[in-house]
């Protein structure tokens, strides 16, 4: 008997091993001689030549030759195919067609193709593009008018033509919309000796309803195919492929208890049905993170005694995975142990770009797949040889369209060995026809079956895999590439690459190098990482912490207050001794800045703190979960963000140019990110050389204490960093009203930020900064081009992860009404799959809200919505603990919301396609501007919406939470924050000292009236929106665009106090695209007012974004107080000489560039 557990261990060890080590092991084990390899390459080149001289290539090959991923038109067609057939409304369909076709150079492709169908399609697309392109320079006057009329009249015709073209394309690659139609269409090829494996198309199940529908589809397909299983030899009968992800909505390792009962039963039922029909059933390969749990399911089903005597159980193995060879060993051992046979389909792999991106996002040790195409090709051949040595238990099925690979298998196999080739329907026809004719090999056609809407994801996948320039399918029709180049020995290519990873693809930990390493990630879909987490946090599962002030001087001991686990009220997490007024006063008196420590040493200490955080992850995870109610997934994200802040701000020190610190800052942080935001504030202030008095949230002092303890251990002096746990009345109020505080960093509610601002205005220096990140009413628009499954996943994550307790969380979903009914059904089904419970359990998706006050407020709100008939969805939640069930509430729009509901409550509004601009206006009118999400496939719509929104962070075709330090700098505008963005290039500099200007020769003047000034402001703010000053692409994972742009803040009041000073201020502000209004005695010219703006008038003004005043302390303090007394956003008083530097704001746009099906640019680099 083979030891399956040992083999599973070897699989896990190979998961993220070094590429060169895996390939070296494969080549040594396969031991294919250079002579054999040379013969293979020579014969493969002959096969390529034979293919090229055979009958015309298939449509797929011809299409890819003309519209590969190296052309804009190819990418546009891919995006169009991915979206068009699911759009129900004609307005959006027209916009999508225009967006994808009008800008492209179709004429350049006219007549180039060898296929009349492709040429005809090109002609139609070129004409469509000309009709749609209104910017044709040659169209003027009456001609332009007629052109517009033709466009309007032609839209229905164009719509029908392009839709028909997409369906025709689909017909080439889907065998039939039903299994019966597919069988009928496949009879032609069966007559030529081919057999079929049918694949029921569709996305992974998101809901239990989806899974039931897929199960029924598989069941019906097997039943229909059983009539065609007429041979006693199962190899001659048709087969079916099933996806485990289609049969269970939570097919993932954290849900293994559910999966190993519910999913195993479903798969066994289908397997029994296939056994009774004497047909093969293959379990398709999926993403790498599902492999481990897939093997569990496979073992349980395969070993079932009821399936004994059936040789049709099949498994798909992906050769691009580093574990492929070890999986083959395990499958062979499994079959041997049960004295059965198994089918194994060997494929190159279908999710390569996804695996690379996910590994980089998760910052795991290495990729689960090879980064070199040559390594994948070597792996495939080595695995093929291994399979050919296992034919006593395994029936190999080699799925390939590559001439070299086919030739290698033929040479490595004995003549009497049982195996078959497989090809995709619509592809590889010429090659396999030749091989079957010459060698008599078996060939099975893998054929997708399903509706055209379901085909699109499959079609885009094929276009991506085979449209890259390095693809065999792409090269075979490119006469400029010689047969010898196409059939090159991949072992030789790999050796020429010196066994190194692809230099175009950064390893997960290196995506921010050379500046800094990426923070360490833990993968909850990897058993090794799970075991590390459990071992590290177990000692703290019942631990009780005793915490209190950590000051530069001794404090008196006092009684502690209990800290209770919000999920389990009987779990006492620890005790906290709150700071007294005397503690606060003593801490302020003892506080020092960090200016005497060189920047390089400060950077070293911050980096050492980051290391200590990662080393102490077990205690941190436990504290985050037990004190703050964080799930394991959230705890991973939290520590990673904290580490990233430390390393990013340490790297920023070099860019400060020895700027002096301001002095001592107070940092007041929230409970919802008790380590990440707490650390981010402190590390930025320390990086600039300041001292810190840190007040954590009342609910989470334990986490703050652990963080400060590790900072002190790393080398931050106690006088530079002091911790003051306690309430806002005692600690917060004292810090914000003490004149010795040189600035304040705050994250929390808008109302609290305004109270702090007013206190500082009356006590601190007039130029003491308040850097605040506050709340938001965050919206998302989903139009009818969006992929519903993708949008639903992102909505659920954005709304309910962290129990909705993120300032970035989605609060209002605007859903295009044309898709609302089916979309909401899917959304509600996905919400039903959320597990609400104890966050210590890895299977939990939604934990508690922070305390009973939060729970009661949110519960009352949801109950009121229910009483008003507006509650659309609410799931169950535990009665013990401070839980709120995920809920969905109907609203007319964002204007219905008086305040942010800080919990797992999503509001839904619908809109008509023509109401998009009104939705944008309503979002802007809320006054908040933190995050915004958009799901669409229309690029023009992305540009229009992002250009017109007043929002700090915009996310396109992805979720809108989880901003990454240095990649997605985070912070809002308006009522959502003061800027600059945390984790961005302008943040640390705000904590350095700026040279102030005081103009002493101010002249007296008449006071200006509120009406005159407000009228002037209104006139200036009626102008068009400003253009960005600069934009930069920030580093990050592949398949994602992160663009940070700077803009002028908006209208600046330049108050002198002299006319010359006001003019100088205005010139500086205008240099960064800020409109200005000069108000000073003697001011003349455009946009000026002669006189003095009083504090009483300033208090009542609206429509401006800041004031500049170079005046003495009393005058400046009065104006700072007037600004603070206003309602609305917190606005700055600028007294520094660097006016331009203080008059900018930042906006960030993150786009998932793989949303339309894959990462074209990455695939182009896969050679």
Fold and architecture overview:
The two termini are 41 Å apart. The longest helix is centred in the N-terminal third of the chain and has 33 residues, at 141-173. It is built from 42 helices and 33 strands. The chain is of the alpha/beta class. The model is unreliable at 123-131 and 134-153 (pLDDT under 50). α7 runs antiparallel to α8, α24 packs parallel to α30 (728-736) and α26 packs across α27. Strands 19-20-21-18-17-23-24-33-27-26 form a 10-stranded mixed β-sheet, sandwiched between helices. Strands 1-2-3-4-5-6-7-8 form an 8-stranded parallel β-barrel, surrounded by 6 helices. Strands 14-13-12-15-16 form a 5-stranded parallel β-sheet, with helices on both faces.
Short description:
With 1167 residues, the chain is an alpha/beta fold.
Cα distance spanning the termini:
41 Å
The percentage of residues in β strands lies in 5-15%
Q: What's the number of helices?
A: 42
Largest sheet: 10 strands, mixed
- Gross morphology: globular
> On the 0-100 scale, what is the average pLDDT?
91
Report strand order across the widest sheet. 19-20-21-18-17-23-24-33-27-26
Oligomer category: single chain
Radius of gyration: 32 Å
Low-confidence stretches: 123-131, 134-153
Structural class: alpha/beta
Number of strands: 33
**Helical residues, percent:** 40-55%
